[in-house]
C-alpha cells in the first residue's frame, strides 16, 4: 500500500506541473494584444489534483493509518473547487484577465498551503 501512496504522490506532482505549466505557457506565449486561453492542460491538471488528492486522503486514513489534517485538506479542496469552477467557465466562454490570473494564483496558493501549513 505504501507503494500505491508514493505512486499517487508522484501523480499529484505531475498534475501540479501540468496545471501550473499550462498556465505559464499561456502567460509567456501570448501574442501581443491577444487574450488568454484556458487550455485542456489546465483542466486535466486540476482534475488530476482532485482525483489523486482524494485518493491520497483515502489511502492515508483508510489503509495506512497515517494522519490527515482535515482543515488543511478542506482548504486545499475549496481552493481546487474554485480553480475548477474558473477553468470550466473559461473552457465554455472566455474569462476576464482577472479570472484567468486567479487560476494561476490559486494554484500557487495550494502549493504554498501544501508546503507551509504544518
Ligand atoms: C491545485 C491543487 C493542489 C496542489 C497544487 C497540491 C499540491 C500538493 C503538494 C506540493 C503536496 C506535497 C507536500 C508535502 O508532502 O509536503 C501535496 C500533498 C498532498 N495533497 Fe495536495 N495539492 C492540491 C490539491 C489537493 C486536494 C484537492 C487534495 C485532497 C482533497 C490534496 C491532498 C493531498 C494530500 C493528502 C497530500 C499528502 C500526500 C502524502 O504525502 O501522503 N491535494 N499536495
TrEMBL record:
Membrane-spanning segments: 6-24, 71-89, 96-117
Keyword Membrane: yes
UniProt keyword Membrane present: yes
Domain of life: Bacteria
Keywords: Membrane, Transmembrane, Transmembrane helix
Designated name of the protein: Integral membrane protein
Amino acid at each position: 500500500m505504501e507503494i500505491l501512496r508514493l505512486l499517487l504522490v508522484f501523480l499529484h506532482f505531475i498534475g501540479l506541473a501540468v496545471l501550473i505549466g499550462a498556465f505559464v505557457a499561456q502567460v509567456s506565449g501570448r501574442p501581443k494584444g491577444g487574450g488568454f486561453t484556458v487550455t485542456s492542460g489546465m483542466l486535466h491538471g486540476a482534475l488530476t489534483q482532485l482525483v489523486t488528492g482524494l485518493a491520497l486522503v483515502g489511502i492515508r486514513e483508510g489503509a495506512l493509518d497515517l494522519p490527515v489534517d482535515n482543515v488543511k485538506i478542506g482548504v486545499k479542496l475549496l481552493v481546487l473547487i474554485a480553480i475548477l469552477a474558473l477553468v470550466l467557465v473559461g473552457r465554455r466562454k472566455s474569462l476576464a484577465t482577472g479570472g484567468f490570473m486567479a487560476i494561476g494564483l490559486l494554484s500557487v496558493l495550494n502549493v504554498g498551503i501544501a508546503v507551509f501549513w504544518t
